[in-house]
Amino acid sequence: MVLSELAVRLNCPEYKNWVKAGHCLLLLRGCLQGFVGREVLAFHRDLLAAAPGLGPRAFCRGGWRCSPRARQFQPQCQVCAEWKREILSHHTNRNGDVHWGNCRPGLWPVDAWEVAKAFMPRGLADKRGPEECDAVALLSLINCCDHFMIDRKKVTEVIKCRNEIMHSSEMKVSSMWLRDFQMKIQNFLNEFRNIPEIVAVYSRIEQLLTSDWAVHIPEEDQRDGCECETGIYLSESQVNEIEMELLKEKLQEIYLQAEEQEVLPEETSTRLEMVKEFLRHNEDLRKGLTEEMQKLDSLYLQHQKQDSKEPGGEMPEERA
Ligand SMILES: [Zn+2]
């Protein structure tokens, strides 16, 4: 019998660990969305209660001149200037990077989510709510906004793990790493003991991480995955979905880093090559990622053209 591409991939324990870890991130995202959505509204209400002048009657008078770009924002009207000050006063990273480019400041008086995005990583300008965000966006908001009362070290530990998952060039993590990840997630989730939907997800994560995570590949007559008592059996299509989500996030990350020239073009090209090599052996995943790969390829070509136009030009600085 010919093994499916998925079965071959999952024969590699480290790859399986990588997918498991990614599945945890998706579960984490799922249980944080509702909570974060409610808290963002509460935060916005608190802000307006403290500074009523910033409410729905306030209007940006700067028009297009009040448009932020990446980390830059020079407000051209009083309302935006006051909002900027207010946001910074609640930002735990106020002296570091604030990705103002995520926000449309004209909407700050009426749209809580536009305010929330100032506490998130770059590249989220088009996200209209927590349901469109990945785990790291939600975790960063919880970490950077002082409305969330939480031991921040526990959040940053999980963010660090998330970055290790996404930056793993071979898409593999060890079992020891996975155990450590489980502990860090547990520490983080323990901070939310009074939020039932977050508490509930912990047992699922624990089950997932400690199980062998057998993937049920259905026989001809069983199209759907079987829901076993333990709930840790997934169908082929469910695992595929998780892999796709993870790979898309990984490619998006490579794209953003290349776009902002945070990494050297050679490094981008090495990372791209590794993903391509992986996809070459995994036709089932490649098909779903054509758009993302094309986007990356054209960005890379564009940078190459620029580089050849300016020989000896400055190399982009690498940021820590
Ligand atoms: Zn303005």
UniProtKB/TrEMBL annotation:
Residue ranges, compositional bias (Basic and acidic residues): 304-320
List every stretch annotated Disordered. Answer: 297-320
Q: Which InterPro entries match?
A: DUF4559
Record's superkingdom? Eukaryota
- Please state what the protein is called: Chromosome X open reading frame 38
